[in-house]
Sequence to fold (164 residues):
Amino acid sequence: MKRKASQLCRDTSMAKLTTKQRRLIKGIAGGMTQRAAANAAGISEEYASRVVKKGQVLEALGELMERSGLGDMTLLTKHAELLEATKVIAVVVGKNVAGGSVDLIVPDYAVQAKALDRAYRLRGFYQKQAEHCGLTSVPVDFRVTFVDPKGQPAPEAGPDMEEV
Fold:
């Protein structure tokens, strides 16, 4: 039995959220992007980004998805299908189209790559990009090897060596 999102708010973890947080979750669960859901809920995109990472919100979104038929097993099954995605390519036989064509089923690497990318993101295999602004100091260790004109290692420069 499918229920509307408004009915799902009662007696679930959604009841623990603020009205704006519930609107955000309903928008995301309804297929909106996070940005569109934030605008519809009347909150900033920055606040929405912080809110969706909170445990209560993630739990509420998970419950809403489960009750809407998008449980873990459904998602995993669909994801497995995407990882094995194929496409049909028609290949012309002979020198012209009149000779007929043969349909070949080949892997759809674009769809498979997107599915892999999504899995890696969900599992946290990607590191977040760090933004650096301004000057920073980074300790660097390096070793200098002196060589003579023939390319042979020369003794290291010391205080008794003359500067060239």
